[in-house]
Design a protein that fits this description.
490 residues; mainly beta; 2 domains; 5-stranded mixed sheet; 13% helix; globular
Length: 490
């Protein structure tokens, strides 16, 4: 009598219901030739992936290299069902407006911190992680997209993709509970980079300025999420969206909110009145890239520092007039990382896709500004992972490997530690790295050598979003979840 697994009916049923088990039993069958087993194996492997996609939520996303896949398990429908159930149970916006569980200052109110340079300077942090970990304060499911968070007055603000809606969302800093959302119908989809909004909102004087992937600029009351004014910066300026969508965070300067639609006819960079949305000025014809505008002082003048698809430049705050420019063209128009202000006269800029980095000196004579290259090389090829500057050295991910270079010379000091296409911020003389796989890593910021001090898994899935620190709390998020850790110093 032949074994039960050689019964064709039972074998086929098992293959349909549990393909991996069928694959194992296939190779025990002596009545099948090798060539037949190979053919069946290919079919069973294909069926296994179908099962994983259909019943277990397997997702295949591209890593930052653009070549390697990242496999995660996530069921979008059940995930959004969970978020919507939580949303129904949340307090009303009137209640939420009056009861943050913790008080807090308005410190981390911009993309990558108050100076948009990824440097936390509010206080010391805990650099002695017990058992290599930080205490977890809360964890919350979130919608998709690559925006970071901003923190002000005991609240956390971000922008998410929930089904076919973009939502500006407010969470309680102390508990992680959702306080309010403001939603509108919009869905940006892109197969290589991924779906959802990219630009981190900006908090300013009790208002949230949020830019969606499709150019929808919404200004909201931060207490309850009430809409104050709105404008689509693409249609308003005759501009087309970028390959990877609008990604530059709005910048508040004086009475202006500065955005970068990239429109023709002098509508590449636009300043609206932050209270009304009325146009104040528009400037340039550049196609935009993905960096966020910055307010800096260079060569003795307060100015806007921007990087378009073809150059880095300084603009007048008052009228958007071009003060100086430095050619900076990257493959696919992929100027993404933030530049770094080195001192009152020099700026560091970097880009991936084989480009590298440069140090540029800005000088002024009789009202005329000049940008001169100090050095340029293929070090620090930061793809979409902005580096940080500390005590004369730049630390960042050269493609996917951590690197330290001397900012004055461009010389490499060391290179080591593979973190994928994650993100790096600086605090208390240490690098805090969120890897592409969602690990949190602590590295000492020293030019001597690569010194990793601690590492633990913080969130699950592909993580490209920048972390944030405020009130001694470290917040990390990706396309499916957000977590808050206690990193306060002793």
């Amino acid at each position: 009598m032949r074994p039960w697994y050689q019964n064709n009916g039972i074998f086929l049923l098992l293959c349909l219901l549990l393909p991996p088990a069928g694959l194992v039993l296939l190779w025990f069958r002596r009545d099948f030739r090798v060539i037949r087993k190979i053919s069946f194996s290919i079919g069973l492997l294909t069926l296994t992936f179908v099962h994983l996609f259909t019943f277990y939520g397997l997702r295949v996303e591209m890593a930052g290299s653009g070549a390697a896949p990242i496999f995660t398990f996530h069921n979008p429908d059940s995930h959004f069902d969970e978020i919507e159930q939580r949303q129904q149970a949340a307090p009303s916006t009137v209640e939420a407006a009056s009861r943050p569980s913790v008080s807090g200052d308005a410190y981390w109110t911009d993309f990558r911190g108050p100076n948009r340079d990824g440097h936390y300077q509010e206080g010391s942090i805990n650099t002695n992680w017990k058992d290599g970990r930080l205490p977890e304060l809360w964890r919350q499911s979130v919608g998709g997209g690559y925006a970071s968070v901003v923190v002000a007055e005991g609240r956390v603000f971000t922008i998410e993709q929930r089904r076919d809606q973009e939502t500006v969302t407010c969470y309680d800093l102390g508990s992680g509970k959702e306080l309010w959302i403001h939603a509108w119908k919009s869905l940006f989809q892109e197969s290589l980079g991924g779906d959802g909004p990219r630009a981190t909102p900006t908090w300013h004087q009790g208002r949230v300025y949020a830019l969606g992937a499709g150019g929808d600029l919404r200004v909201l009351d931060a207490a309850a999420g009430k809409l104050i004014w709105e404008k689509n910066i693409l249609s308003d300026n005759g501009a087309s969206n970028l390959t990877w969508a609008m990604s530059a965070s709005p910048l508040i300067v004086d009475e202006k909110v500065v955005v970068q639609p990239g429109g023709p006819g002098g509508r590449s960079v636009v300043a609206y009145h932050k209270d009304t949305g009325e146009p104040i000025w528009n400037s340039l014809d550049d196609k935009q890239a993905y960096t966020s505008p910055m307010l800096v002082t260079l060569a003795g003048m307060r100015q806007l520092l921007l990087v378009s698809a073809e150059r880095m430049m300084g603009l007048s705050v008052e009228d958007g007039a071009l003060l100086w420019d430095y050619p900076w063209t990257t493959s696919y128009d992929a100027n993404i990382p933030q530049p770094l202000l080195v001192d009152e006269n020099t700026v560091f800029v970097s880009a991936g896709y084989g480009h590298g980095s440069a140090l540029v000196k800005i000088s002024e004579s009789n009202g005329t500004f000049v940008a001169a290259e100090v050095w340029k090389n293929n070090r620090m090829k930061a793809k979409f992972n902005p580096p940080v500057l500390y005590e004369g050295y730049v630390y960042g991910l050269d493609e996917s490997i951590l690197q330290c270079i001397d900012v004055r010379t461009g010389k490499q000091m060391w290179k080591g530690g593979r973190y994928g296409y994650g993100q790096v911020i600086l605090a208390d003389g240490h690098l805090i790295i969120v890897t592409e796989q969602g690990d949190l890593v602590l590295v000492k910021a020293t030019p001597e050598s690569h010194q990793e001090l601690a590492r633990f898994p913080a969130i699950s899935g592909k993580t490209w979003n920048n972390p944030a620190i405020a009130d001694g709390r470290l917040i990390v998020r990706n396309q499916t979840e957000m977590a808050c850790y206690d990193i306060s110093g002793t």
